[in-house]
């Protein structure tokens, strides 16, 4: 099927590559179907584009690349709702934001609410890790910012 | 808004699927026990609002901003 998107133009999407979010993303309960659009020359990030709303896409990242100690414990109810039987079925990504002033160097990701996907079943859910101590903004390139600050101080 | 008075140990039932029980009352804080089907997510409102706000900011990212990623070398 062809899907219109604001950022990427019309895209041909195979029905079986659609992910179904029964509850949608937090704040977007009406948008339940998403698919991935790769970021050119970059396999750490990917766009998760809504099938129903051309404007809505989330930039996602594999958080374990930037935060190797990131610890996510999925509750039994999350595993049940995503029909997860084996951890191999799970893809976990987090949502990225870019502050307008700093651009990509100031990119943060939301470790408090990862997106958990059962890629075998094609279903996903944004999970809120309440009580985990994680926040909605964790700086991805903290070392890059530190370096540039050091340079700025001579 | 429906307003109900409950004492410690008492519950309310919503739509025959959700049960909320007052577990403890201490000063201005109430501890609630929530029994709900697994397909229903239950959040503290302020946490939910925080995630909602972050998601809305996230959907505003311009594709051009991401192209600059290639410029970040290690």
Describe the structure in brief.
Chain A is an alpha+beta fold and 154 residues long.
Descriptive tags:
heterodimer, A: 154 residues, alpha+beta, BH3618-like, two-stranded antiparallel ribbon, 3 helices, B: 74 residues, 3-stranded antiparallel beta sheet, 2 helices, 3 strands, 26% helix
Describe this structure in words.
The complex is a heterodimer of chains A (154) and B (74). With 154 residues, chain A is of the alpha+beta class. Chain A is built from three helices and eleven strands. Chain A has a single domain (2-152), classed as Roll (BH3618-like). Chain A has helices at residues 63-66, 76-81, 142-152, and strands spanning 2-5, 9-12, 19-20, 33-39, 42-50, 57-61, 90-97, 108-109, 115-118, 123-126, 138-139. In chain A, the strands form two sheets. In chain A, strands 3, 4, 5, 6, 7, 8, 9, 10 and 11 form a nine-stranded antiparallel sheet that branches. Chain A has a two-stranded antiparallel sheet with strand order 1-2. Chain A is globular and about 40 Å long. The model of chain B has no long low-confidence stretch (mean pLDDT 90). Chain B is built from two helices and three strands, in the order βββαα. Chains A and B meet through β6, α2 and β7 of A and α1 and α2 of B.
């Amino acid at each position: 099927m062809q899907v219109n998107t604001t950022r990427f133009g019309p895209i041909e999407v195979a029905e079986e590559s659609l992910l179904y979010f029964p509850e949608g993303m937090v704040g977007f309960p009406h948008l339940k179907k998403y698919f991935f659009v790769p970021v050119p020359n970059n396999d750490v990030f990917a766009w998760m584009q809504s099938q129903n709303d051309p404007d809505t896409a989330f930039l996602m990242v594999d958080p374990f690349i930037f935060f190797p100690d990131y610890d996510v414990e999925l509750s039994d109810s999350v595993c049940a709702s995503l029909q997860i039987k084996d951890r191999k079925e799970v893809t976990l990504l987090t949502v990225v934001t870019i502050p307008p002033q700093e651009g990509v160097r100031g990119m943060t990701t939301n470790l408090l609410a990862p997106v958990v996907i059962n890629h075998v079943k094609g279903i996903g859910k944004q999970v809120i890790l309440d009580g985990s101590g994680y926040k909605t903004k964790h700086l991805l390139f903290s070392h890059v910012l530190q370096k540039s600050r050091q340079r700025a101080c001579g | 808004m429906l307003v109900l008075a409950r004492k410690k140990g008492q519950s309310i039932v919503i739509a025959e699927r959700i049960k909320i029980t007052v577990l403890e009352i201490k000063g201005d804080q109430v501890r609630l026990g929530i029994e709900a089907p697994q397909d229903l997510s239950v959040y503290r409102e302020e946490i939910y609002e925080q995630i909602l706000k972050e998601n809305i900011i996230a959907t505003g990212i311009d594709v051009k901003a991401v192209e600059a990623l290639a410029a970040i070398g290690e």
